[in-house]
Every structure is written in C-alpha cells, then in structure tokens.
C-alpha cells in the first residue's frame, strides 16, 4: 500500500508538510512497501529533529554535571538546565521557575505529591477524591497511602458515555475532602474532564487540587494560574520531548512546606553524621544527578510546541478527530466508546470491532503499517465500567493527517475481511 499524503491541505491550521519533515520516523516503512501510520500518540509522541539534535549537541559540546563544578562545561550545563526550567514555567504560566520540579514522568510526579505532601498533610479519615477514569498512576499511589495512613478514597463515577458524573462529584466533595486529584483528559477514552467545575467544588471546601496533565499539556493550552490548581503533573515523552523527563509543578508555598521525597546529593543544605538540612525548592526535590539532557530536550520540545501554538495544535486535533469519528462510523461492526463530538474529547478514539479481540485488531493493523494501542491502557477501572477486557485505541497528534485516518479505516476494513466479520 502506498500512502499518498495530501500535503497541500488548506483546512489545516498549520503547514503539515513542513511539520512532518521534522519527524524522520514518519517516513519509515515497517516492512518493505508498508509505510508507518503512527496513531499511538497517547502512549508516546514522536520526536522532531530539533529535539534529537539538541541531545546530541549537549553531549557533544557541553556535557558535565550541574550545580557542582566551577569549570566552563559545568557552568554551561547548569545554565542550560536551569534555563529550561524557566521556559517550562512560562509554557504553563507558572509564576515562578522554582515551582518546576524535574521528575522522570507523570507517575513520579504524582508519587512525589503522595509521598511528600500526602504523608505530611493527610491523616486517617481525610478524604482524597479521584475519579473512575484515572490512569493507574493516579490511583495506585493513593491506595498505597490509604493502606499506610488510613485516608479514605472516593471515586467520581464515570457515566456510560465516558464523562464524569458531576452530580455525584457534588455529593462526594465535601468538608472531609483534603485533596481532589483528577486527570484533565482520559487516556483510555479521550474524555475531557470539566476541570473548572470540579476545581470550584474542591476549592469551595478548601481542598488542594492536583491535575494529571499527561494527556492535556501536550495537546492544549494549560494555564495553572487560570485553573487555580495546586499541583500539575506531566511527562516529556508525550509532548515531543525525551523519555525519562517529567515535571511536577507545585505552588511555591506548598512545595516549601513539604519534606523531601528522596535523600541524597544536591537536595541538602548541610550534612553532618548526625543530621541534615534541606536545600530550597526546587533542589529539595531533585536528589542526585538529574536527566540534564532530558530537560534540555524537553525545553526544545516546548519551543517547538509554542512556535506552532497550543490553540492551533488543539484545532488541528479536533479536525482530525472529527474526520476520524465520521469515517470510523462507516466501518461495519465498529463501535466507538465515549462522546460522539470531537469538541468534547481529545484526539483519542477507543473502539471495538465486533467479533474480534482488540489485540487481534492491533496485530492485523500493524501488518498494514498502522500503529495503535490495544489493551486496558493502564486504566483497568475504565475497562471494568465499560464491561470490556480491552479496547483498540487510535490517538492523534500535531503531525497526523486525514490521509492517515483513511489508512486506518482501510486497514480496519481489511481486518473485517480477514476475519470474515462486519458483514
Ligand atoms: N499513558 C497511555 O498509553 P508516564 O508513564 O508516567 O509517563 O505517564 C503516566 C500517565 C498518567 N496519566 C495519564 C492520563 C496517562 O495517559 C499516562 C500515560 C500512556 O495511555 C502510557 S500507559
């Protein structure tokens, strides 16, 4: 199959052909004559040459440890690392660069809050409100804390259309709620969570609010001050950045009041054989040599996203998702989970093909070059609520085209033909 890209499309808000040239992997074939159609962006995005080159350049020209040396390379590396912190603060409109803590990923960021904020400020009987559509990384750390400290977990239920039950949320969020921790967008279904309503409910009760931005920060403008939240967690690898670098943003007063997450080099002020005192934030939460090149690559990824504009990226994804929802509706035997309207969801479409296990769908699509994710998407409670073991999931990003959606639809029709289904 030859994939012909209509790179002159004018309905798109930016120059898709130019963008695709920045991503060499999009030109590869997964087998001779089978071009890659990468639709697994909710799992991880691809990286542009600008990000890849920044990492090579760092190791080739600047590499040294940071905050430790007086020599030129160490000073350069420190300046680059700290410069990226400031850039990322600006990207999410954080008032102070010290509020950006570099972690490995969203998972570590949420664990950091559960450990360093939760263990200090939550007591037995305090309630933490989560939702049924959370990724495991926003469930398991709180279950661990519950088992250790006796806090109570409450879950805002999911309605059959993949949205959250706001009436139930109003009932669950009350005087005992000390923390609301919710995702901005479901990775399994694409549902966009009505954060403004939920945050207002939590703030009316004086609760702290953590937002899991793993699926929102890469795809739409996120402004922590406008949202009025306290913590935001996200991952570099889902937003064109390297693996192994993530961010926890937290309000400075909260970060100041928290104890460290890990002990070691760089997070201390003084150490004697008897006791130690802590460095100020952000160093207090960045023990050991950090992922310096990762932070630099993430900074370049943020430059790339900012140059395109997050509103333009969101608009592009709505167009692609809208087109995909319409085309997929015509595939025999295919049903889509979640809201039918592209405006109400991110660029994620979970679906099933009647009579074929999602893993088999994924495998046949792969033979046509189409990469999607199948499984429970680290959101087993969502699968339980839908009463399915797994789904097939296509997810889009700024470089995807309507022609790639056509390739997905063709491959699904061939999957039906292969299994003799959809008739
Ligand atoms: N979701 C997916 O295929 P990490 O692995 O720490 O970078 O991100 C965890 C995470 C947290 N919250 C949400 C909403 C997420 O989507 C993810 C990662 C990927 O859906 C990998 S499981």
How many strand elements? 17
- What's the story with the biggest beta sheet? 7 strands, mixed
CATH superfamily of the largest domain: Type I PLP-dependent aspartate aminotransferase-like (Major domain)
Helix content percent band: 25-40%
* Structural class assignment: alpha/beta
- Unreliable stretches, pLDDT < 50, 5 or more residues? 1-11
Q: Can you list the strand order of the major beta sheet?
A: 4-10-9-8-7-5-6
Which class of the largest domain in CATH terms? Answer: Alpha Beta
Count of alpha/pi helices: 14
Describe this structure as you would to a colleague.
This protein is α/β, with parallel strands linked by helices and 423 residues long. It folds into two domains: 16-44 and 309-418, Alpha-Beta Complex (Aspartate Aminotransferase, domain 1); 51-307, Aspartate Aminotransferase, domain 2, CATH 3.40.640. The protein is built from 14 helices and 17 strands. The longest helix is centred in the N-terminal third of the chain and has 20 residues, at 72-91. The chain is globular. Ligand C6P binds at residues 42-43, 105-107, 135, 137, 183, 187, 212, 214-215, 235, 373, 377-378.
Short key terms for the protein model shown above:
423 residues, alpha/beta, Aspartate Aminotransferase, domain 1, Aspartate Aminotransferase, domain 2, 2 domains, 7-stranded mixed beta sheet, 4-stranded antiparallel beta sheet, 39% helix, disordered N terminus, binds ligand C6P
Summarize the structure.
With 423 residues, this protein is an alpha/beta fold. Helices cover 39% and strands 16% of the residues. It has two domains: 16-44 and 309-418, Aspartate Aminotransferase, domain 1 (Alpha-Beta Complex); 51-307, Type I PLP-dependent aspartate aminotransferase-like (Major domain) (Aspartate Aminotransferase, domain 2, 3-Layer(aba) Sandwich), CATH 3.40.640.
